[in-house]
Amino acid sequence: MKQTICNDVYWVGALEWSKDHFHGHELSIRHGTSYNSYFINDEKKVLIDVVRDSHLSDLADHISQFCKVEELDILIINHAEPDHASGLPRLLQMNPNIEIYVSRGGKISVTRHFPGAEKNLKVVKTGDEISIGKRTLRFFEAQMLHWPDTMFTYCPEEKILFSADAFGQHYAAPERFADQIDQKGLWFEAEKYFANILTLYSQQILKKIDEFLKLGWEIAVIAPAHGMCWRQNPTQIVEKYIQWATGEPQKSAVIVFDTIWGGTEKMARAIAEGLEDEGVSYRMFNAGAADLADTMTDLLSCRALVVGCPTRNNKLLPTLALYMEEISGLRFKNKIGMAFGTYGWSGEAVKRLETFMQEAGIEVVIPGYKCQFAPSQEDLAKCREMGRELGRKIKAA
Ligand code: FEO
After folding, report:
1. How crowded is the C-beta side of 139, counted as CA atoms within 13 Å?
2. CA-CA distance, 367 to 351, in Å (whole number)?
């Protein structure tokens, strides 16, 4: 069945129902994903992006509704990460003469990933246009949304923006438009994508979006490389990206802890009670049981991070070390934090948590608290007071 996006523009991509993680084992995905490719049926037969090699036969089947793969004239590679482009070598075997348009960064990433493709490449930059018959394709280099090679391709006659990974979601469904599916799942996946993939590049993203909006290109549809297309108020997702990249925090906290014999968990619960005393909402995650990527999604929009870990082998538990490495890499904006934990005889974990937070750009606003072996009633009262103090700081922000 033809999946029409707009006049003569069709979705010809593939759905991924079988994976629960992406990027190796790094990123959990709850709703599957899609590798979106789009076909434009003009005087030139144009394909926007390939798909993962494992799904190339789906792509070829979908294209066959319009033409043979070997009859495609033009391929646009907006971004060459293998989930979108690893099907390229086999597509080139079927169609060795296809012209491939890439950004300057795309020339590097395609050549490095797929040696042999370079002879087909044509490099374009922001503002360049090509005619495909009745329509035009115009390019915008969108570096760090989310790779240096990323570019957007825009068709002014249809007012459709092919935006690569930007504005996408890991979401597999037979529907093609954001307004056709469950909104809770849609927005969770859109925010999760931003939190885990894009947060580090927030400053560049704000500049790039500003540069793009100043071009004044009218948009009727945004067609990303994963998930649903945006056609009702399509720039609502652009506005969300600006909000997320700005790091506007809600007056809430995320508590992440792990525990060996329950002492650090008791401290976490006492801090949480202190936040409740101040009417501040929070989400609490046991790092040993929670999902890292889901936790990062909650962290994106909260004001405070509270982290707790027992000391073991003079260091953090590996579960917390993983979380802190991720948090310091993503560099969330506008966050305050505090640390806590139990120890037996050395007690380095709290200091290490604070160091990680400082590396992450999180302001440690309340000195960390540690207690030996099991927390006493006095220790827990102290934790509860720390929670209250943090709650007041969150509300004052
Ligand atoms: Fe969906 Fe950056 O690849």
Report:
1. 24
2. 9
Distance (angstroms) between ligand 1 centre and the Cα of 82 equals 7
79 is catalytic: yes
Query: Which residues fall within 8 angstroms of residue 367, CB to CB, at 6 or more apart?
Result: 338
For ligand 1, whether the C-beta of 84 sits within 6 Å is yes
Which tens digit of pLDDT belongs to each residue from 351-385?
999 999 999 999 999 999 999 999 999 999 999 99
**Alpha-carbon distance 44 to 130, whole Å?**
11
The single-letter DSSP state of residue 228 is P
- Helix, strand or coil for residue 65? coil
3-class state of residue 395 by DSSP: helix
CA of 34 to the centre of ligand 1 (A): 11
Angstrom distance (rounded) from CA 229 to CA 309: 42
Delineate the domains of the chain, giving CATH numbers in brackets.
3-244 (3.60.15.10), 254-390 (3.40.50.360)
For tokens 């009262």, the residue is: 381
Residue minimizing CA distance to atom 3 of ligand 1? 81
Q: Is 10 annotated as catalytic? A: no
pLDDT of residue 25: 87
Name 41's bridge partners: 45
Q: At what angle do helices 263-277 and 377-396 cross, to 10 degrees?
A: 40
> Is 83 one of the annotated active-site residues of the chain?
yes
What integer pLDDT is reported at residue 148 of this predicted model?
97
SS3 call for 83 = helix
pTM: 0.96
| Residue carrying structure tokens 């009727």 | 220
**Burial (CB count <10 Å: 0-12, 13-18, 19+), residue 106:** buried
Residue 72 one-letter amino acid: L
